[in-house]
From TrEMBL:
Pathway: Lipid metabolism. GO terms for molecular function: acyltransferase activity. CDD domains: LPLAT_AGPAT-like. It comes from Aromatoleum toluolicum. InterPro entries: Plipid/glycerol_acylTrfase. Residues 46-158 form the Phospholipid/glycerol acyltransferase domain. SUPFAM superfamilies: Glycerol-3-phosphate (1)-acyltransferase (SSF69593). This is 1-acyl-sn-glycerol-3-phosphate acyltransferase. Keywords: Acyltransferase, Lipid biosynthesis, Lipid metabolism, Transferase.
Length: 242
């Protein structure tokens, strides 16, 4: 908070991004999480599209490629978290408003035009990481309108032996406290980002781009049966909104 209040206003964009990356890397280290990266390099000016497993996903992505995230508008009103999110380039989306969607699209386009990465979780909710839900193609529209590519990111969490692990999953009826306890209880947790090649969006319908992004992520995930059961919660109760 002190850094955001005192250093941010006097810092260049590159400095803010560096601070965000360092914060995220330190948080992962404190929680005993090792970051592993595979696939293609993250390209600047891309919309990053990822599957959504945990609140940790934001820090995992920021530890590699500090990005502006698209979030539901309600997060802006959350104590402390909303304040920090607002000052770290979070784009707040008010669902169901076409007029507001146009404003948001223009805001995202400005970031992409400036060479920044904007990250979205088009499933709109979290899973345990064993599968990927349907993508809401409308969330990809800003990148399509301004002609910037979309780069799919497959996120997975694994145990010390490399086997997929559900400890980080923030899905179903699990609380934030339970999720945090599950993470801390793991002696060693690996967060892995496998980046696919960027997908060109010029002249392509958003549903087609969404389908290609979905397929690219699914191809980089372990099979459903490989995920180690860990965190509680009903598999059919996916109610945590991204």
């Amino acid at each position: 908070m002190l850094t955001v209040l005192t250093i941010y206003p006097l810092s260049r964009d590159a400095t803010r991004l560096s601070l965000r990356r360092r914060w995220s890397q330190r948080l992962l280290a404190i929680l005993g999480i090792e970051l592993r990266v595979a696939g293609q390099a993250i390209q600047p000016g891309c919309m990053l599209v990822a599957n959504h497993i945990s609140w940790l996903d934001i820090f995992v992505i920021n530890a590699l490629a500090p990005s502006a995230f698209v979030s539901k508008a309600e997060v802006r009103g959350w104590p402390l978290i909303g304040w920090l999110a607002t000052r770290n380039e979070t784009v707040f989306l008010r669902r169901g408003s076409r007029g507001h969607a146009k404003i948001i699209n223009a805001e995202i386009a400005t970031l992409l035009d400036g060479g920044r990465n904007v990250a979205v979780f088009p499933e709109g909710t979290t899973t345990d990481g064993s599968h990927v839900l349907h993508f809401h193609a409308a969330l990809l529209q800003p990148a399509i309108e301004c002609g910037h590519p979309i780069q799919p990111l497959a996120l997975t969490y694994a145990g010390a032996g490399g086997q997929p692990n559900r400890a980080a999953a923030y899905d179903g009826d699990i609380t934030l406290g339970q999720c945090l306890r599950n993470i801390v209880a793991e002696p060693h947790l690996i967060a892995r980002i496998d980046a696919a090649a960027p997908i060109a969006t010029q002249g392509v319908h958003r549903r087609h781009v969404a389908a290609m992004s979905h397929a690219a992520i699914v191809a980089r995930l372990p099979s459903v049966g490989d995920v180690t059961a860990h965190s509680p919660g009903d598999e059919d109760a996916r109610k945590k909104v991204a």
